[in-house]
Amino acid sequence: MLQKWITSIGLDIGTSTTKLIVSKLLIANQQNQFTLPGCQIIDRRVTYASSIYTTPMLNDVEIDVQRLTVLLEQEYKNAGISLDQVEAGAVIITGETARKQNAESIIHYLAEHAGDFVVATAGADLEGILAAKGSGAIERSAETNAVIANIDVGGGTANIALCQNGKVIETFTLHVGGRLIRLNSDGFVTYVSPYLTEFLKNNSLILREGEKAAFEKLSSICQLLAEETVNYVKVLNQNSSLLVSPHTRSSIHPETIMVSGGVGAMMEKQKPKTVKEVAIHGDVGPLLAYHFQSIEVSQAAETTRATVIGAGMQNTEVSGSTVYIGSKRLPLKNIPIIEIPVQQEEKWNPQLFQERARAACMQASTIFSAEDPPVAIALSHFPYCSYKMLQELAKIISAEFIACFKGAKCLVVLCEQDIAKALGQALAKQSKELEIICLDQIDFTHGDYIDLGLPVAGEAISVSVKTLAFSS
Asked: In whole angstroms, how far apart are CA 159 and each of 173, 245, 249, 360, 414?
């Protein structure tokens, strides 16, 4: 087994802040003369963490790539690395900056300067999932079998993920963050988010831009914001005027609540006692952090940098030889993988499989950006497959995919077993509008990203499965 240390960067570009980490990853390369490389991360060490910067913006939604480039080049110097030393990495673009024009600009910059990156534009749900992974909530839920809630509170939103048995089972987002109210050094209010208007009115509170803020009023607002968030997470409230998008709260009650993000990082600090102490960062973050702490939620193991990705590491393989390629789109890059177990019961049950497929596709449609193909459906727990079962599988997959991804024209399906050609043909018969790519003998994990290359041997194509590796 060959081993090699490589340099990786992780870049998190958010609406308010941008953060960079540099990691050393020990890669075990299990290759021989008969196969392409199969890489696995067996050790990782964070060697450098940048300061937390205000994201350079051209306007409210577009990143200033030139200023970001200067920032990154300076951070590379600070870290003691050059661009040509970087062999892997991942860029996560979150919040209002997660727009297509931003992602494309960053991709082009990285393509010219460094290695093969995972570039993901993360909506609120994906941001919550990434934060839960980076904060340690997902790992803790796997170790304890408890339901763990992670609240990632940043400048404008609180992204919440409920975790159980090492998986995220529910996500939602509230307009709760440190920069929803901004103050100057003299304590005058310079900005009040319109998202707070209804909430403040419902609680008989008025806060106007230009007024000199009273400490007691700011404290009351921050206390109410923290309580509203935690009460919704605990299912004490069934609705909230602060929800970013409509959400029906399940009855699942978390046993532990953790707080990450920039506000989570300030929970250990002493309570600010004056408006001047509150406004040290130009907002109400320190006071909001105190009120989260006062209602007995715990600080996450990783806070500010919970969503900074350690690496996008590749595992290169070749698909099975009996693939089905009903599309001319190859090559394709950065397709997120969603896993759907085919059979978890003793016998094949099409109704239960349809429920799993519907739930997985619906969740994916809220998490991932509307690229085409939006996701790759990975079928696991695949038993012996009869002709009838194959037809039922194809019918269900096609119907649920089309229902959840109405604008998609391409469907990618991955199989553990050697049935891709037959399944691909069955899928093609279900919908004449969908282009079908069906591959088999692929080793995948839910949450990975996949690149599909051109044919390399007969019908087989090269495949790179890329894992987001968090610092630990």
From this structure: 5, 12, 14, 20, 30
| Dist CA 36 CA 139 (whole Å) | 31
**Position 400 confidence tier, pLDDT thresholds 50, 70, 90:** very high
469 forms bridges with which residues in the sheet? 311
Task: Please identify which residue in the block is written with the tokens 């839920």.
Answer: 141
- Find tokens 């996450």 and name the residue: 300
CA distances from 290 to 190, 192, 436, 466 (A): 22, 20, 52, 39
Give the single-character DSSP code of 246.
-
Per the listing, tokens 């304590």 go with: 187
**What residues does 455 pair with on adjacent strands?**
461
Q: Which of 333, 160, 331 is nearest to 249 (CA)?
A: 160
- Tens-place pLDDT, residues 166-208: 888 889 999 999 989 999 988 899 999 999 989 999 999 999 9
Ranges of H-type helices in 60-203:
65-79, 100-113, 124-135, 137-144, 197-202
Could you tell me if 13 and 91 are in contact, meaning their C-beta atoms sit under 8 angstroms apart? yes
Q: What is the pLDDT of residue 103?
A: 63
> Distance between CA atoms of 110 and 75, rounded to whole angstroms?
15
Question: What are phi and psi for residue 446, nearest 5 degrees?
Answer: -55, 130
Give bridge partners of residue 411 from the DSSP assignment. 436
Query: Is residue 102 within 8 Å of 96, Cβ to Cβ?
Result: no
H or E element that contains 182: strand 181-183
Q: How far apart are CA 361 and CA 413, in angstroms?
A: 13
Tell me the pLDDT tens digit for each residue of 86-130.
777 777 777 666 555 666 677 666 656 555 566 666 667 778 888
